[in-house]
UniProtKB/TrEMBL annotation:
UniProt organism field: Coccomyxa subellipsoidea
Name the UniProt record assigns to this protein: Uncharacterized protein
Subcellular location: Membrane
Pfam families attached to this UniProt entry: Mpv17_PMP22
Topological category with respect to the lipid bilayer: Multi-pass membrane protein
Family: Belongs to the peroxisomal membrane protein PXMP2/4 family.
Keywords: Membrane, Transmembrane, Transmembrane helix
Keyword Membrane: yes
Transmembrane segments: 61-80, 100-119, 165-184
């Protein structure tokens, strides 16, 4: 067996143990890594030649993943959905459709408002938060449905509860790219085009 395979297996086992022993911290760090990677991809793929990399932007995205997406959404919200919505038949069609509907009508708008508000606050421009929320929440949520509804059909239908945060954060790399661009000044046409691409 190759050394890479052994290291990969050991790393996976360590991650699974960490999820069991310290679920909130592990999910928070997973989300932080996903948000950071999404922003790195966004900046490297879209910045004009010669423009400097914005480390503070990546730090803000990482902080949002660490303090909001990981613990509040990834741990408590998904945990609540699993315990509340048809817990005896969690993979049934009714459970999956209900979880997607509740997630996308409640958490998607709240998470988007929290994201744009947090970004402006961390940029030390809290007075601009309300305008950004008004302009970008609905287009971002509507665009997100194209990505998150099918992604959550897989998430709630097939992914084990313990691995949900990891799965969501792999998908969230693409979503973070979209959010990062929107927060950096992308208009709603750009957001919709990025989700559709």
């Amino acid at each position: 067996m190759s050394r890479v395979v052994i290291l990969s297996r050991n790393g996976w086992n360590a991650y699974c143990r960490a999820l069991e022993q310290r679920p909130i911290i592990t999910k928070s760090l997973t989300a932080a890594a996903g948000f950071a990677l999404g922003d790195v991809v966004a900046q490297h793929s879209t910045k004009p030649h010669g423009e400097r990399y914005n480390y503070l932007r990546t730090a803000r995205m990482t902080a949002f993943g660490l303090f909001f997406a990981g613990p509040l959404q990834g741990h408590y919200w998904y945990g609540w959905l699993d315990k509340t919505i048809l817990p005896l038949r969690p993979k049934s069609l009714g459970a999956v459709v209900s979880k997607i509907g509740i997630d996308q009508t409640i958490m998607a708008p709240l998470g988007t408002v929290a994201f744009f508000s947090a970004m402006k606050t961390m940029e030390r421009k809290p007075r601009e938060s309300l305008q950004m929320v008004k302009e970008k929440t609905w287009p971002t949520v509507a665009a997100g449905w194209q990505l998150w509804i099918p992604a959550h059909a897989i998430n709630f239908g097939f992914v084990p509860s313990s691995m949900r945060v990891l799965y969501v954060n792999v998908v969230a790399i693409a979503w973070t790219y979209i959010l990062s661009q929107a927060a950096a000044g992308g208009n709603e046409d750009r957001v919709e085009a990025q989700v559709s691409a």
